[in-house]
Design a protein that fits this description.
heterodimer; A: mainly alpha; 11 helices; elongated; B: mainly alpha; globular
Chain lengths: 302, 337
């Protein structure tokens, strides 16, 4: 960040565009690549666990082993056994799918709804924009997690309720992001050319705007996949999401909490799994958003 | 300014109204009817029927909603199936307990986030930057209840320095009731042993909340102060001999605080949701734990009442921020007048 210091000392006129460009450039050399590689590796391992858990563990997640319940890690069970004597590593691995699928669905609902609302608001402008953005404001002025909790409770326990409840509170961020991007792009030369050639709003959005947005959208989605999982785990933790004996991470944590003093591995590892996934995917997203910025820079030359 | 204030107040009332509409909708979404829900588990047919008549479930929805709204205003929130009490009585009991936790942890969080953020903004360099970035990523990636569980693991199970949870030791009884906030009540009674015990029980939950939120607020403050540092007025002030804390607080903070405050208010919203999780981990007997227990039994009257209450707190706090902030920053006053 030495160039920022230079500018600060030089005071007077901060050369913002140049600095931003140089900062992006210098970051790309090291941290971004490291972020993408490390994040990508972590995410890959989790994806394997979600798709083919059998590859990572030979134990059955619901088999009761005859040894002592809550055996410490090591001794034939990598992460020990849980309160009923089930292999804990296997439970964590098999819990990946449920946790990941729920967060993917939530982010998908949020991204689709948000994109439609944001692009509509940005393209049409006027009163449509005003109304839609007011609705977005409204969602952002309420404590989302609490409302999702109440909604999930009213819908009844289970994974479906959690996905619906969190999906509904998830879209406003995307709407804001897309509206901003559409408005920024509205008067670009190629968009105005397309309009001059008679292209309609839908065609302009799909053919002339969305291709430029994929970068930022991807970055946002990857990051959100992590936060969605934290929220899913939170709802499961209070007993609304996946129900036992499902080894979803939030409910594993809830059970583990009763054994804090006697079996530390039952709380340490599920939380570690959630944190690792979130950090891995955030690193991937952070790294990718750098590339997205680069893409936008090239895009601006048209 | 007056027009702006009226606008904000109307917006807040509108939001509150929407929340009641939402909970009313949920009340009808729940399987079974509200009378069964409100009468509680194990209620007799006659009781349910009486409640049905009392609730006017045969009337049109609009009339029902109107009565629901009137009930809320008069604090008729239904019966809890678990505690067998009026939900409003329960809430009155649990609210101060939660406020104690929320106010203390949020205050510490704000002081630390703004203080450390401002401090770190003056320390440029790759290492500081990377540290803040990484801790923000990790900090927002750790589930808050897991942070709590880990602190419990370390300071209770391993080191034995701090209690696992609760508000007081098992054998102790609370101070004479004045406000319901144990720290204040015990101080009023001059009962410093109870005061100390409450403080001791507060350490871990408060630390949990602060740790889980700190990185985000710190990063936002740092970014905002960092931008301000390059502005000409900072150089002018420095040239005139203003330095250190005075430069930061009087000159820079005044300008840098705007984006920070919006981050903080967003964080406050998260906190209100997280309190349920933190209270559950530490058996802190506030609204969050009440909510948790109600969810375990799908006891809807308290769940919906808490939703209205917590949303209300959030809306009011945001309203106050909206109203106070232009008083601090005249530029906003002009823009919004």
């Amino acid at each position: 960040m030495s160039m920022d210091a230079d500018v600060a000392v030089a005071g007077g006129r901060p050369e913002v565009p140049r600095t931003t460009f140089r900062r992006t450039w210098s970051r790309s050399a090291h941290s971004r690549q490291v972020f993408v590689v490390v994040g990508g590796l972590i995410v890959a391992v989790f994806l394997v666990a979600a798709i083919a858990p059998g590859l990572l563990t030979s134990h059955n997640p619901s088999a009761l082993y005859s040894g002592p319940a809550t055996a410490a890690p090591g001794s034939g069970h990598l992460l020990g056994t849980d309160e009923l004597g089930r292999d804990f590593f296997a439970r964590l691995v098999y819990g990946t799918r449920s946790s990941l699928v729920m967060s993917v669905l939530i982010v998908a609902i949020g991204a689709v709804l948000g994109t439609v609302v944001g692009v509509t608001a940005g393209l049409f402008g006027g009163w449509i924009d005003e109304v839609l953005m007011r609705v977005v404001d409204l969602f952002l002025s309420l404590p989302g997690f609490v409302l999702a909790l109440a909604l999930a409770a009213a819908l009844g326990r289970g994974e479906r309720s959690v996905v619906i409840a969190l999906g509904i509170i998830w879209w406003p961020g995307y709407a804001r992001l897309f509206r901003g991007m559409v408005i920024a792009m509205k008067h670009r030369l190629h968009v105005e050319s397309a309009r001059a050639l008679g292209a309609g709003n839908f065609r302009i959005a799909r053919r002339h705007m969305l291709p430029f947005m994929y970068g930022q959208l991807n970055a946002r989605i990857t990051q959100d996949l992590g936060y969605a999982l934290v929220n899913v785990a939170g709802l499961s933790f209070v007993g609304l999401g996946a129900q036992p004996p499902s080894p979803e991470w939030g409910s594993l944590l809830q059970t583990g909490l009763q054994y804090v003093a006697t079996a530390w591995w039952l709380t340490v590892f599920p939380g570690l799994a959630i944190t690792l996934w979130t950090v891995g995917i955030a690193m991937l997203g952070d790294g990718l958003s750098g590339f997205a910025r680069g893409e936008r820079l090239t895009g601006e030359r048209d | 300014m007056l027009r702006y204030a009226v606008q904000r107040i109307i917006w807040a009332v509108f939001l509150m109204w929407l929340v009641t509409l939402f909970t009313f909708f949920l009340l009808h979404l729940i399987p079974g009817n509200p009378a069964i829900v409100m009468a509680g588990i194990g209620a007799k047919k006659a009781q349910i029927h009486a409640l049905e008549v009392e609730l006017g479930l045969n009337k049109p929805l609009s009339a029902q909603y109107w009565e629901y709204l009137l009930g809320l205003v008069q604090l008729h929130l239904g019966l809890s199936a678990v505690t067998r009490d009026q939900v409003s009585t329960d809430l009155g009991h649990y609210l101060p307990v939660s406020l104690e936790l929320i106010v203390i942890s949020f205050t510490i969080y704000v002081v630390l986030a703004v203080g450390l953020g401002a401090w770190s903004a003056r320390r440029e360099g790759r290492v500081a930057e990377a540290l803040v970035r990484v801790s923000a990523i990790v900090g927002s990636g750790m589930p808050v209840f897991w942070v709590g569980a880990m602190l419990q693991e370390l300071f209770f199970a391993r080191l034995g320095w701090l209690p696992q949870g609760g508000q007081l030791g098992i054998t102790a009884s609370g101070p004479p009731h004045v406000t319901g906030v144990y720290l204040i009540d015990s101080a009023i009674a001059g009962d410093w042993a109870t005061f100390g015990q409450t403080a001791e029980h507060l350490v871990l939950p408060v630390a949990t909340i602060v740790i889980a939120m700190l990185a985000v607020g710190l990063r936002s403050t740092r970014a905002s102060v960092f931008q301000e540092l390059r502005r000409p007025y900072v150089r002018t002030a420095e040239a005139k001999g203003v330095r250190g804390a005075r430069l930061m607080v009087v000159h820079i903070m005044k300008n840098a605080l705007n984006p920070v405050i919006s981050t903080l208010s967003l964080q406050f919203g998260y906190l209100l949701g997280w309190v349920a999780l933190v209270e559950t981990v530490f058996s802190w007997p506030g609204i969050g734990l009440y909510l948790y227990n109600s969810i375990q039994n799908l006891d809807y009257a308290p769940i919906l009442a808490i939703t209205v209450l917590v949303s209300g707190v959030f809306i009011v706090v945001n309203l106050i921020t909206d109203l106070v902030y232009p008083l601090l920053d005249p530029r906003l006053r002009d823009r919004q007048a």
